[in-house]
Amino acid sequence: MSTVSNYAADYYEVSLSAINWLSVVFFILTIILGLPAIYILNIYGLKVSLLLATWLNALGQLVRVLSQFDTTWGFTMVMVGQSLAACAQPFLIFMPVQVAEEWFPDGQRTTATTVASTGISVGILLASSICPVLVSHHSQIPLLNEVIMVPAAVAVLMATFGIRSDCPPTPPSSSAAAESANVQPFMQGIKEVMHNRCYVLLVLSAGAGYAIFTALLTLLIQILCPMGYTDTFAGWCTSSMIVSGVVGCFIIGILVDKTKLYSEVMKFAYGLSVVSLCVFSVYCLQPHQEIIIAIASCLFGMFSLPVYPIVQEMAVEIGFPVKEAISAGILNISGCIQSAMLVLLLPLLSQPLSAGKMAHETCTTIGQKGHIVPVDQTVTVMVLSTFATIVVVITILCLHPRYHRLEMEEDINSHICQEN
Questions:
Q1: Which of 84, 130, 317, 322 is close enough to 403 for a disulfide, judged by CB 3.0 to 4.6 Å?
Q2: 167 in Cβ contact with 102 (< 8 Å)
């Protein structure tokens, strides 16, 4: 609901800060359930994890739909439904690297991770695009909940009747074969990666990148509407970020699969994404700058979204032979911790909107009940872009990884060649 947060706040008669909690609850529950989800993925495999995720998500969406029939407890029910759906998130965001490792050879792993990861982004894209189209008045929020229930139900059917096994009969790579032959204890794997300084730096920097992208998506309409930009324009900006990001993911994913230049490509994309964010930050605080804001949004998405699958593969490479659910899972937990902090703390930096700008703001909805208070987000945006700049500079200068999985596979291939 982030692209129609003002209408949602009006419908449920709560503040924008309360609506932000619909996003924050995903981060908090991923943090709480992160290690249990990693354990289930590690011990019980992909099939059980996917079934849990899809059923929890569908049940959560059903509770959200039912919330429209209780005006007294409506927002409470929405929060309960959102929390149930949020319990599914750790399973879904931890899966891509495990799917890539267990089902694809070494020359296709980054592309496979990219395809699986962008599935989540496509879901966000569809929701962000549909929300402003379906909702032009607060009374249409129930319709939005009903429409979102449809893909949740389809996912349940596909997972329940379409998934047959956790992994193929024959491991697709030497590293997958080594992992299946030598199962590492769960806690030992966690201790091993957390004692790896390069891995810890990657976890912190990549988690910050994830948080910056998520915070901008969550707060976008609240940043743009004080300057007179509409919900529809904010929705298009969100969509352009994700569409261009998906395109960038496929291009960069194939490039990394061919060259194995994980760190170099990641630093290049990360740096350009922060440059784009800085341009966005300057012009989103000025009215009538739709073209520049739209271009900056596209470029930010194109370079920031591909970083996500690359850093997951880097986490597996750096942490090997630790199971990929552990190495990528901890990285995602870091992203959720930092996302929750940014989404909760950044709005606290907002200032009262000046009288001149109040005449042009579009935050207040038609027929609203006094729950929307437009604020100036200048400090919020400047802090976000400054934080991003500091993180990317530290990442470029200090991150110098060693790829243990690739080294092991090269040694095995070299040994095989010598024998032949």
A1: 317
A2: yes
Q: How far apart are CA 177 and CA 174, in angstroms?
A: 5
Given this model, what pLDDT does residue 290 score? 92
Encoded tokens for 242: 């994700």
- Residue 204 in 3-state DSSP? helix
Query: Can you read off the two tokens belonging to residue 23?
Result: 């996003």
Token pair belonging to 76: 């409470």
d(CA 351, CA 393) in angstroms, rounded, equals 29
CA 295 to chain centre: 21
CA–CA gap between residue 156 and residue 18 (Å, rounded):
29
Of the candidates 260, 405, 413, 399, the one whose C-alpha atom is nearest the C-alpha of residue 323 is 405
Give the C-alpha separation, 177 to 407, whole Å.
15
Radius of gyration over every alpha carbon of the chain, rounded to an integer in angstroms:
22
Q: Look at residue 174 and tell me whether its pLDDT is greater than 50.
A: yes
Beta-bridged to residue 352, according to DSSP, are: 375
375-393 b/e (C-beta count within 10 Å ≥ 16 → b): bbbbebbeebbebbeebbe
pLDDT band at 38 (very low <50, low <70, confident <90, very high): confident
Question: Residue 121, CB half-sphere, CA atoms under 13 Å: how many?
Answer: 31
Report H helices in 167-289. 174-181, 186-194, 197-224, 231-259, 262-283
CA distance 63 to 72: 15
Does the bond joining 321 to the residue before it have cis omega, within 30 degrees of 0?
yes
Helix axes 307-319 and 109-134, enclosed angle (nearest 10): 140
Q: Which pTM was predicted?
A: 0.78
Predicted confidence band at 180 (pLDDT cuts at 50, 70, 90)?
Answer: low
Per DSSP, the chain holds a count of helices (H) and strands (E) of 17, 2
Judge whether 380 and 67 are in contact, CB under 8 Å: no
pLDDT band at 326 (very low <50, low <70, confident <90, very high): confident
Give the Å distances, CA to CA, from 98 to 193, 306, 312.
17, 18, 10
Beta strand pairing status for 351-352 and 375-376?
Answer: antiparallel
pLDDT band at 299 (very low <50, low <70, confident <90, very high): very high
